[in-house]
């Protein structure tokens, strides 16, 4: 990595951490300059506008999510092992300090319009498609019923992980992980061939 | 209702609507004065501080939620009819313009400290307890298995409704309601006596 690319990673890591706490809308180039000890004018020159910064942060977080969750899942054998890896990695992702930027963004962006929302919606749809596709490999392998709906599974799993976020973070429920895993096992049970 | 109490309801309705769009943190007495065409000084005299306004809005929204969701559910026969009423009313509540204030608050308040968060956490725990209690009446009536966990059911149902919010609002998925209802039926099936 060049020095410039490294600096960029550091800035975007910091911005993503900040956004997961204060929301994408709460991101400011000024606060980012203070926290990275870089000049405000340098950051402005680089990111041009708040909207562009928000889009870069989303792209950066999405790339990290793919590295940490999607790619390791797909590296596992097709079918149930892949679904399990995806789920466990996703919970781990949501357990990082500050929580999950994407979860926060869902509730921040739902009443907004514009390119940041559009990009985020496209990313979310891609992620639901990825879950459905990973589940589909399990139908192919005979781990799951042929008439199980991959889209329903993706939707159900998303709900389980959203619940995990709320219960573990806001309510600080020590059982949040156990409850999410229990729900996940029931979801797999229901998908198995009779 | 006295004139004062009526005015108060109008203000709090407006504030709750505003908060469901911009978050409790985005509420300002100034914007509220503009939208209700009341004097800023009058509103300040009444609510004293932003924090007090946020607490009043939470209490107001909670009272409306009880009227619209919890009370009609508990008015139905014990057990499954009560659980079904609770679920359908809850989806309806989340379908109002601007979405659900509580869902937005979950992701807004999770990184904050203070009396607003504390009150909200207590409210959320009360609500999960109410769901568990409603489910428990179904065990008593023989609609659900004796070894089913009411707390797990509450957690699972919360996840389904959170997913519904995200998929219906941010993703504008026309199938969001169908998917939530499908997941709900599977959850009831899993709870039924063998």
Structure description:
Two copies of one chain form a homodimer. With 194 residues, chain A is an all-alpha fold. Chain A is 76% helix and 0% strand. Chain A is built from nine helices and no strands. Chain A is elongated. Chain A starts with a helix and ends with a helix. The model of chain A has no long low-confidence stretch (mean pLDDT 93). At the A-B interface, α6, α7, α8 and α9 of A face α6, α7, α8 and α9 of B.
Q: How do the helices and strands line up, and which of them pair or pack?
A:
The structure is a homodimer of 194-residue chains.
Chain A lengths: L2 H20 L6 H8 L3 H8 L2 H25 L5 H15 L6 H9 L5 H26 L9 H21 L5 H16 L3
Helix pairs in contact in A: 1-4, 1-6, 4-5, 4-7, 5-7, 5-8, 7-8, 8-9
Nearest-angstrom radius of gyration of chain A?
Answer: 18 Å
The chain-level structural class of chain A is mainly alpha
Number of helices of chain A: 9
How far is the N terminus from the C terminus of chain A?
52 Å
Which sheet architecture does the biggest sheet of chain A show? none
Helix proportion range of chain A: over 70%
Shape of chain A: elongated
How many runs of DSSP E, i.e. beta strands of chain A? 0
Low-confidence runs of chain A: none
Q: Tell me the quaternary state.
A: homodimer
Please indicate the percent range of residues of chain A in DSSP E strands (runs of 2 or more). Answer: under 5%
User: Most extensive chain contact?
Assistant: A-B, 44 and 43 residues
SSE order of chain A: HHHHHHHHH
